[in-house]
Amino acid sequence: MKVIPAIDLMDGAAVRLSGGDFSTRKSYASDPASVARMFEDGGLSSLHVVDLDAARGKGSNIGTLERIASAVSMTIDFGGGIRTAEDIRRVLDAGAKYVNVGSVASKNPEEVVRWGSLFPGRIILSADARNGMVAVSGWMEDTGKELIPFIEYFLQNGISTATVTDISKDGMLTGPSFGLYNRIMDALPSLSLIASGGVSSADDLFRLAQNGLYGAIVGKAYYEGRITIAEMKEAECSQKE
Fold this sequence. Notes:
Layout lengths: L1 E9 L2 E6 L2 E9 L2 H10 L4 E6 H4 L6 H10 L3 E5 L5 H9 L4 E4 L1 H5 L1 H10 L4 E8 L2 E4 L4 E6 H10 L4 E6 L11 H10 L4 E5 L5 H9 L4 E4 L1 H4 L5 H10 L3
Parallel strand pairs: 1-4, 1-12, 4-5, 5-6, 6-7, 7-10, 10-11, 11-12
Antiparallel strand pairs: 1-2, 2-3, 7-8, 8-9
C-alpha cells in the first residue's frame, strides 16, 4: 500500500480544513515546496496535492504546483478545479503525473470517460462522500448520487483508480472510514482504492493495508504531529509485497 502525504493549497500556502469546512482553514507552511522536500528527504515517493482555491472557482495554484514539481522528483497527483481537457494538460505540463477529477465526473461523466481515453492511465476519480452520497464543488454541493454505483460506472469505463474521501472524517483525526472502504472493496474488488480522510496514526495505515487498499493519504495527522514522516515510510515499507 502506498502512503501518500498531502499538501492542500490556498493562496499558495499549505493548509488543512476540518470536515471540509473552509472556515476552519489552518495554515501550516507558506512554502509548500519545502514541505514536499521534507517528504522526499524522508524517503516517500508519492505526493497528493489539492488546489482548494480552484475547487471553489476562486483562483489557481498551478504556479505552486510547478514550484513543488521542480523541487522534488516525487510522483504527484493533483486535483481541484479540473473542468476541461486543457486543465488536465496544464496540470500534467506543470509536473503532475496523475490528475484527480471530481466535480465534472458527477456533472458530465461521459466527458471524464473521454478524458480517460485521451490521457490513458493518468486520470484518478476523486469521489468525495458525505453520508454515502457524492459531494462536489469543494464539498459544498451534495449531488444525491450514491457513492458505489458512481465509482462503478468509471471502473467499467476504464478508470480503475479512485481516491475516496469521507468528508466527515477529513481533518478530524478520528480514524478513517474503515466500514465505507470495506464496502467499496467488497463491491468493486478490481478497484485501486486510495483512502483519504481521518488517518490519525501509523496503526490506521496498517489497518487500511490489511484491508487491501491500494493507497492511503495522510494530511492533518502529519501537520499536527500525530504521525512522523519516518512512521509513514516505515508503514509503507512494511506493507510492500
